[in-house]
Amino acid sequence: MKVMVLGADGYLGRPTADHLEANGHEVMRIDSFMKRHMLCDYGLKPLRQTGILGSIRSCDVCDRGFEGFVRIFGPDAIIHLAELPSAPLSMRSHANAAETYKNNVMSTLNLVWAVNKHVPECHIVKLGTMGEYGTPNIDIEEGWLDVEHKGRKDRVLYPKKPGSFYHLTKVHDSDMLAFCCRNWGMAVTDLNQGVVYGTDTGHGDTRFCYDHMFGTALNRFIVQAVAGVPLTVYGSGGQTRGWLNIKDTLECLRLAIEHPAEEGEFRVMNQFTEQFSVLELADLVFDVANACGLSPQMEHLKNPRNEMEGHYYKAEHTKLLDLGLEQTLLTTDVIHQMMDYVFSHKKNIVEKQIRPTVKW
What we know:
Helices cover 37% and strands 20% of the residues. It has helices at 13-22, 34-41, 66-73, 87-92, 94-118, 165-184, 217-227, 246-258, 278-291, 319-322, 332-344, and strands spanning 2-6, 26-31, 56-58, 77-80, 123-129, 144-149, 152-157, 187-193, 195-197, 231-234, 240-245, 266-271, 274-277, 298-301. Helix 2 links the parallel strand 2 and strand 3. The protein has one domain: 3-Layer(aba) Sandwich (Rossmann fold), CATH 3.40.50. It is globular. It is of the alpha/beta class and 360 residues long. Strands 3-2-1-4-5-8-12 form a seven-stranded parallel beta sheet, sandwiched between helices. It has a three-stranded mixed beta sheet with strand order 9-11-13. A two-stranded antiparallel sheet has the order 6-7.
């Protein structure tokens, strides 16, 4: 198929485009390089920064000029990864919240209008987040909920309880795309992704962030263990989420485009493989680091986030398994591999950018 990957310079976007090409698809890569500029502006250095590929078209999806790429390429599928992915950034200031809203919501709005005008049969795959759901006291279904109220039944989108302005933008995206499916007959898959970890993409290096703004917990813990600084657990560490290896992200995106949603269908899949609390992950890293002779330490920080630290969490995630996803689970071998990778780039670690500075 002809697949357009938006955000193709990112941690997920770059290996996704490589993975699709390796599986025989024709890929157009789009990116504005906004993330590179932001990291520079905030003085944040990735553990590994990749070079810019010559095959990437420089374009801001928030710019109406993006429509021309859609018209000329005529994609069968578009994977939307071109959004700012940071909850702390979105809560840092009014300017950062506005920036997150403008980039995330406007990029999706431009996308649906371009598709409806030029390639209405194109399948849109949007990378959402499990954070849209929050931590409800009932099981989390895959996007939809069957309800009975005062003797009547209906099927509604699962209620959302986002925990930051970033997560709010993702909820707005989901509502917008569901609206377009109802009104324009679009085919959309919304992949509500858990937290991604990992360094081995199977397609070479990708950007690896471990800072307090863009780094995810497991990646940060492993960098901290290698650097010899305490693993920073927020609060009690009881916050439970869905997690998946970056290899599984690439496979989920491939499976989604190769098994598209139907015309007029807003299909939601919960994209994760395992559930862990933050403390469980810290304990896993602590044990592996100990076995490697690293003498790790752990520090419980006052939680900088307004979130529940002890809560019920059980989320369904069967649809991608039904499509054939073979899971890459978190094992001690995976943690060892990640540690080896971080050791190979240890000289690039900047300790002062790990501890949280944004509180809400």
